[in-house]
Design brief:
This protein has three helices and no strands. It is mostly helical.
Length: 102
C-alpha cells in the first residue's frame, strides 16, 4: 500500500468555511468533503481534456475533408425522411378513418 500524500493547506474566508460545514452530510468531515471535491474536479478535468483532444482530432479530420457530407446532401436526406414520415402519417390517418367509419 502506498503512503498517503497531503495537499497544501488553503486559507478561506470564515464565511466559506461555514458554508462548507453547513452542507456536510452526517458523519462526513470537512477533510473528506474536500478530498471528494478535489477528486471529482480532477476526474472532470481529465474527461474534459479527453473531450477537447477528441474535438481537435475531429476538426483536423474535417479540415482534411474526411468523412464529411455536403450540406446539400444532408438536407436532401432530411427532406426524404420528412416526406417518408408524412406518408406514414397519411397512411395511419387513412387506416384510423376507415376503422372509425369516416
Amino acid at each position: 500500500m502506498s503512503r498517503s500524500a497531503t495537499l497544501p493547506p488553503i486559507r478561506v474566508a470564515p464565511e466559506t468555511k461555514a458554508s462548507l460545514e453547513a452542507v456536510l452530510r452526517e458523519g462526513e468531515s470537512l477533510t473528506q468533503f474536500i478530498e471528494n471535491a478535489v477528486c471529482r474536479e480532477a476526474e472532470f478535468r481529465a474527461e474534459q481534456n479527453a473531450a477537447i483532444a477528441r474535438a481537435k482530432k475531429a476538426l483536423r479530420s474535417a479540415d482534411k475533408g474526411a468523412g464529411l457530407m455536403k450540406s446539400e446532401d444532408f438536407l436532401e436526406g432530411m427532406e426524404q425522411r420528412a416526406r417518408a414520415a408524412q406518408q406514414r402519417i397519411r397512411e395511419a390517418v387513412k387506416v384510423k378513418n376507415k376503422r372509425s367509419g369516416g
